[in-house]
Amino acid sequence: MGSVVDACGVCNGTGDCVVSCNATLGPEFVFDCAGVCGGTALVDACGMCTGGSTGITPNVFLDACGVCFGGNAGLDSCGVCGGLNADKDACQICYGENAALDACGICFGSGRFVDACGVCFGNSSSCAGCDMVPNSGLELDACGVCGGQSTCTSTDSDAAKRRKQFSILVTGVSAVSAVVLALCLAALLRCKRQHSRRKYVAMRKASQAAIAPSGRVAILISDVQSSTMLWESYSSDMMVAIEEHDRIFRQALDKFRGYVIRTEGDSYVVAFQDTEDALNAAVQIQHDLMDALWPPAILHDKRLPSDARDSPDALWHGLRVRMGIAVCQPTLTFDERTLRFTYSGQAMAYAQTVGDSGTGGQVVVDAEVAAIAPNRVDRLGVFADALSHRFELFQARLGKLSGRKYNKKLRGLTRADP
């Protein structure tokens, strides 16, 4: 017991086998974990060589919960390791102690559901007097008079009883009538709202039908290259960058009459009635992206290097956006929830394949686009997808950006011609 193995692998040894990496400096100089003679790098708690010449802070990969490479996954919303949000109150506020809970048990309710009688969700009737005024304190006297002094004579007692009974009957009938009237008004209001909604939906459908491309249309699909990596590395800078990206898209789509079908994160799906409008919009966007002002973190990323914007041969600057344009005939359906037309069917699957095939900064188009603008495209060849569907594809010429080099392999496709 208590025995240890020395650096030479000898039980209870003295480590005499260790040879100095620099005898002139002394026998104690050995290589550290980074391979530096006499270095100070050490293996930290996560088994990583840190400190010294590595430039890595020791235990930098240890999260707040003491887990290596944990990414603070064990922290709950209140910042407690393994806390399982137990410190949240009924209103989901950390350490709130239900201070935001009102007397009716409503979070942030501020007591607005308490009636005049102090009853939660009441109708102020529990403390109403015979005059139906809350907290008035008035009662029917012996003569059936609300707030009276019972001054009627004994000979009038029968009449008083009849008046009292009549008063109760009238009150009951009034209450029932009020309920029936309220129900009728609610039903009438609901019908009116439904009618107004149908009228508004019909009006919106007509206005959207006037601007939504139909029949054979050009579908442009875009996506930012390596966006996930950029978001993980520069989340705050990417928020600024995507705002600029969206501004550029909106400006070009307004100019060339593009109908936005949907946006998914930093991806756009747009329909054009005129195919040349789609091509013009794509080229305009690529040029505007090149000229935009991007956050420095995006420009200095070594994985997607940018050229100086004012350089005469600059080809890359900022976000790289791939685009694809395909001509097809999708099915149009008006969505009453979004009040816009949706485009669906096998045609959209075809357009998606073309849209996904390129790389950042490239505009890939199908044969029908190329036939309309043959002098503005270069042929890439014939390609096939996993289901053996064949696509003859081209890439748009981008004017001053035509010197860009792209991956010869298209994403999700294999070459089908020699």
From TrEMBL:
It comes from the Eukaryota. The chain crosses the membrane at residues 166-189. SMART domains: CYCc. GO terms for biological process: cyclic nucleotide biosynthetic process; intracellular signal transduction. Keywords: Membrane, Transmembrane, Transmembrane helix. The keyword Transmembrane helix applies. Residues 218-355 form the Guanylate cyclase domain. The keyword Membrane applies. PANTHER family: ADENYLATE CYCLASE, TERMINAL-DIFFERENTIATION SPECIFIC (PTHR43081:SF1), ADENYLATE CYCLASE, TERMINAL-DIFFERENTIATION SPECIFIC-RELATED (PTHR43081). This is Guanylate cyclase domain-containing protein. It comes from Thecamonas trahens ATCC 50062. The lineage of its organism: Eukaryota, Apusozoa, Apusomonadida, Apusomonadidae, Thecamonas.
